[in-house]
Amino acid sequence: MPSNKSNQKPQPDWRFEAIGTTWSIETVVPLSRAIRADISARIESFDKTYSRFRDDSLVAQIAKQTGEYVFPNDSIKLLELYRGLYDATKGAMTPFIGDTLGALGYDKTYSLMPGSAQPVMAWDDVMRWSGTTVIVTKPTMIDVGAIGKGYLVDEVAMILEGHGVDRYVVDASGDMRCRGDTQTVGLEHPYDTSMVIGVAQLQDASLCGSATNRRRWGSDLHHVIDGRTGRPTQNVVATWVVAATTALADGLATALFFVDADDLKTTYDFEFVRMYHDGHVERSAGFVGKLFL
Predict the structure, then answer these.
(1) Strand, helix or coil at 150?
(2) Separation of alpha carbons 60 and 131, rounded Å
């Protein structure tokens, strides 16, 4: 979800479009051409691996044919986090919803023409991996959207830090990582995007939000799919998570649509705000910020 930021000290701003969304990178001094080139190359390599919207991606090949595929070396972190959240949500949060999203109309042409929902296959019936080698036993369209954008934000942030940039805000339309100065971030109201339901105070942390009003089409159709039913969720309408990494915050923001926070806090360290369809809002005890509802 887009967020509203204030009281920021980083000012030079690089804005660009990538992986279907708007990015903003704010730093104390303008980024050099070399840093921008490294970031652009990393985003392109990620997109060519994981995008289900381009025909030449690795996941597009997997959707067509079974076999062994070699993923990039850093994919292990992404796969391990996804599998952990898959198990924690008892299969509700799954990377194997690509075909279901496509059948419901959220396909690579953005037809938004709803069809019949397809059942989501169980992880162990589709894929296993050893190191970076992924073995696919049934053709399926992998969709890493519930973690992928946050994961890529972390990758971009590591490039910045590798070049000695230690004060920055990387914001990929609501998936945000901050280092250095404290940031005040608005939590967008899912029923009125001109309003916020509160603010979070971030320092050296990541914040991700997810809501069912974004990427919504048809009758009660949106992008948050329950892998157990193959249908969009209905009870929770928005979540926000603060965690040490953006990948973790992104994944947990989706997982909170399906399970209680206490079930996740036994394994993961995070703070959260969650809003239900009736307007009720809950927050964790350690959430740093204010709610206005």
Answers:
(1) helix
(2) 21
| Token pair belonging to 181 | 């100065």
CA 5 from centre of chain: 19
Answer for the pair 123, 93: CB distance below 8 angstroms, yes or no.
Answer: no
Nearest to 194 by CA among 168, 179, 213: 213
Joined tokens for residue 208: 């991700």
Q: CATH no. for residue 86?
A: 3.10.520.10
Q: Which residues contact residue 124 at a Cβ distance below 8 angstroms, ignoring those fewer than 6 apart?
A: none
Query: Read out DSSP for 216-271?
Result: EETTTEES-EETTTTEE--SEEEEEEEESSHHHHHHHHHHTTTS-HHHHHTT---E
Contact 143, 26 (CB under 8 A): no
Using a cut of 0.85, tell me whether the model's pTM lies above it. Answer: yes
Q: Within its chain, how far is the Cα of 226 from the centroid? A: 15
Q: Which domain holds residue 151?
A: 5-291
C-alpha 2/C-alpha 13 separation (Å) is: 16
Domain count, the chain: 1
Tokens (6 digits) for 92: 């509700």
pLDDT in tens, 68-124: 999 999 889 999 999 999 999 999 999 998 777 766 665 565 555 666 666 788 999
Sequence-distant (6+) residues with CB within 8 A of 151 are 77, 78, 81, 144, 246, 247, 250
